[in-house]
Amino acid sequence: MTSELRKARGVPAPAVVASAVACLALAACASAPRDAGFGDVQRGVTASTGQEIAWDPQQAIEAPADAAVAAQLAEPLTADRAVEIALRYNRDLLATLEELGIARADLLQARTLRNPFAEAELRFPASPSRPFEVILMQPLFDLLKLHARRAAGEAAFEVTKLRTTAAVVAFANEVRADFYRAQAARQLLASQATIADAARAAAELAHKQHEVGNVSDLDFEREQTRYDAAKLELQRAELEELQARERLIADLGLAQPPATLDLPAELPPVAEDAPPAAALDEALAGRLDLGLARADLAAARARLPLARGPVYADVAAGVHHEREPQGERTTGPALELPIPIFDSGRARRERALAVVRQAEQRVHAIDLAGRSAARTAAERLREARARAEYLRDVVVPRRQRILELTQLETNAMLRGVFDLFRARQDLDEARREEVLARRDYWVAKSELQSALLGVKGFEPQGGATTMKESE
Question: To the nearest whole number, what is the mean pLDDT of the chain?
């Protein structure tokens, strides 16, 4: 067939060449950012968190190795350091960043014309010349809607960049919260161990005194019950510490737990930093979820022109050349046109318009929901700070004073030793509640930051950024 085509004469080569040159020129314009928009994501993450991402799409992917992460843990870990390590080594996050490469490929595809197609026929018998027919066609819809396709592709690319930025910022805030949870869990475990030791000492003393008849059966059983409860609470604290530590280890990208995870012994104290309502409104103006909703709306509007003419997507024009058995040749234009008898494209147009209207409503809904979430997070922060301060300034000093007075009365033989044990346990319980309040404060502060940035609910998950209910 190739030899027959080479023998063909009279084909209007200029038209074919012009079409090919036009296709090549338009395809040459099909470009996209070489970094797949990573620079924009990096700037957004740095502006929101002060951290940078270590990601290179050209770097070979290797199996996780804990040695590199372990080297980063040689020094005591802080919240900022934990975020820095997680942004470098967490595989879920790195998989999420690969969405940028996928979006770049989609953008390139949106900027690329469909290939022309050829149709050839060779007929038998051939007398005196072998007859053939050749048709070269180019879809016209791609040419007419190339600008709209590019606009839709660029809008979708912007959506992916914003979604990826929100996922990274949300992950950074979640790592910070996980750090404070792990730190608090370790401090609570130490506090609960102290409470269990005191309960054990009281139970042992009660057992000895019960044997000699100085403690009644009721008092003996009460002390044993308190010790049992303390042991159960200690087991629960050990499990909670393990879960919090494992979650932080997973955030850091470690396959195996390190020999030691050096965390500060105590949570930092609370601070007077609850933002006023005016500051909340100002901060909410640049929320990422609102920007993403607006980008989704822009993408839906950019797809509208493409939905208005898909019924003519198969329209193609080209050139037709044919040689008859007698050797006569004919050449002329060719047109392929679908007949819209059954499908006029109305359903696609109505669907595209409904998607635009839905996106418009979602912009307003996300704006209102985000403001409510920010107010709730700010109030949760205020409550946790007030609770921590009250425990620190009122409850703990009062329990300390009760312990001191109980000690004095015990020395004067006015109180029994079990009263002293209970006073000590009450003080330890108050300190434990203060640790819980501090933990709630720092977690609430991280959640408020997520609410103000509009990333609450965004999480990297297996290479796809999704919206999900936060835990």
Answer: 83
* Residues 6 or more apart in contact with residue 7 via CB below 8 angstroms: none
Angle at 459 between CA 454 and CA 460, to 5 degrees: 135
| pLDDT > 60? residue 461 | no
pLDDT band at residue 184 using 50, 70 and 90 as cut-offs: very high
Sheet containing strand 132-139, edge to edge, reads 117-122, 132-139, 316-323, 329-336
- Asked if 261 and 248 touch (Cβ cutoff 8 Å), the reply is yes
Residue with tokens 């989609």: 106
Percent with pLDDT over 70 in the chain: 87
Residues 206 and 422 sit within 8 Å (Cβ to Cβ) = no
Cα separation, 330 vs 124, in Å, equals 18
For 281-325, write each residue's pLDDT tens digit. Answer: 666 777 888 999 999 999 999 988 888 766 777 788 888 888 887
User: Nearest Cα to 181, choosing from 273, 250, 271?
Assistant: 250
327: buried, middle or exposed (CB in 10 Å: 19+, 13-18, 0-12)? exposed
Rounded CA-CA distance 361/293 in Å is 10
For residue range 213-229, list pLDDT tens digits in order: 888 889 889 889 999 99
Q: What is the pLDDT of residues 26-48, one digit of tens each?
A: 443 446 678 888 888 999 999 88
- How far out from the chain centre does Cα 300 lie? 22
The predicted-structure confidence for 336-379, as pLDDT tens digits, reads as follows 878 777 877 788 889 999 999 999 999 999 989 888 888 899 89
SS (HEC) of the chain: CHHHHHHCCCCCHHHHHHHHHHHHHHHHCCCCCCCCCHHHHHHHHHHHHCCCCCCCCCCCCCCCCHHHHHHHCCCCCCHHHHHHHHHHHCHHHHHHHHHHHHHHHHHHHHCCCCCCEEEEEECCCCCCCCCEEEEEEEEHHHHHCHHHHHHHHHHHHHHHHHHHHHHHHHHHHHHHHHHHHHHHHHHHHHHHHHHHHHHHHHHHHHHHHHHCCCCCHHHHHHHHHHHHHHHHHHHHHHHHHHHHHHHHHHHCCCCCCCCCCCCCCCCCCCCCCCCCHHHHHHHHCCCHHHHHHHHHHHHHHHHHHHHCCHHHCCCEEEEEEEECCCCCEEEEEEEECCCCCCCCCHHHHHHHHHHHHHHHHHHHHHHHHHHHHHHHHHHHHHHHHHHHHHHHHHHHHHHHHHHHHHHHHHHCCCCCHHHHHHHHHHHHHHHHHHHHHHHHHHHHHHHHHHHHHCCCCEEEECCEEEECCCC
pLDDT tier for residue 380 given thresholds of 50, 70 and 90: very high
